[in-house]
Amino acid sequence: MIDLRSDTVTKPTPEMLKFMTEAEVGDDVFASDPTVNAFEKKMAEMFGMEAGLFVPSGTMSNQLCVAVLTQPGDEIIIDDLGHIFNYESGAAAHLSSVQIRPIKGERGKINREQAESAIRTYNDWDPHTRVIAVENTTNKGGGACYTKEELIELSNLADEHGLYFHLDGARIWNAMTATGIDPEFFGSVADTISICFSKGLGAPVGSMMLASKDHIKKARRLRKMWGGGMRQVGLLAAAADYAVENHFPLMTKDHQRAKQLAEAVSENPKFRIDLNTVESNIVIFDTVDEAAVDVLKEFEEKGVVMIPFGPKTIRATFHFQVDDQDLKKVLDVVRNY
């Protein structure tokens, strides 16, 4: 079965597993696991931030960032397709007692004008705007990427209004591959960053919060409070480190294969797609007449799985464990539907 449901479906390679078993480990609750300590330092330096905190998931990383940047009654501005708003179980309200103000952007991206129009006044009866949050690349937006200029404008806006700027970088590696932006740039514009290792990079577990030392100190205690304190976590940090060094360069191929699928979709009159929307490893397209679930059932019978992303919308997500031979089969299934 060729699995294009998500880039989270990858399995550890033999080389990754070997690297994991050779990792030197300790107890990270006591901050004495040398592998995770070194990896946190490595990622912080790569992205131009002071410190990092390895956590089990991107949701925990995002929510730790929300928690250290806000006070109860505050508000976060985010695109209405954003992960924090749609896919984190209402955690911002439950864990930090803040509300989210979703605004309509373009393919999951917001611009300065849209964000500025959502900033509140500071009356006693207002929720206080505290954070502008963006996602790069956008999941529900089909892998759209922010440009340097767009991020600088939003960061400047946050500074002008005394707000924080959070970057949800669940697929930041894809964004860097697509745009050529160096990682340290993101640290120059964001107050907090969440990066993920278990999507296109192919690690089995793990994300990291990047921020100032003070924010990481506070987040470390919250991580423990929320059940995220881990012991010999160097095993997982080693997998993430291996993925960064060995799988990050493979993303260029993922993006090329996504564009090839998009071309095949565009050639079939039973589907609709805007080829300009395929910037990274995600392909989102619509069916013309049939329900997405019906189309996907037939795809699965032919050995290809994707996911419904709406009544007549389908998402396919590429990763390094879908090779050129797999792609050939996927293209045949789509063209001959």
TrEMBL record:
Keyword presence, Lyase: yes
Gene Ontology CC: cytosol
InterPro entries in the cross-refs: ArAA_b-elim_lyase/Thr_aldolase, Low_specificity_L-TA-like, PyrdxlP-dep_Trfase, PyrdxlP-dep_Trfase_major, PyrdxlP-dep_Trfase_small
Keywords: Lyase, Pyridoxal phosphate
GO MF annotation terms: L-allo-threonine aldolase activity
Xref: Pfam families: Beta_elim_lyase
Domain Aromatic amino acid beta-eliminating lyase/threonine aldolase: 3-286
Cofactor(s) the record lists: pyridoxal 5'-phosphate
Residue positions where N6-(pyridoxal phosphate)lysine is found in the record: 199
BP GO terms, sorted: glycine biosynthetic process; L-threonine catabolic process
Tagged with keyword Lyase: yes
Family: Belongs to the threonine aldolase family.
Annotated protein name in UniProt: Low specificity L-threonine aldolase
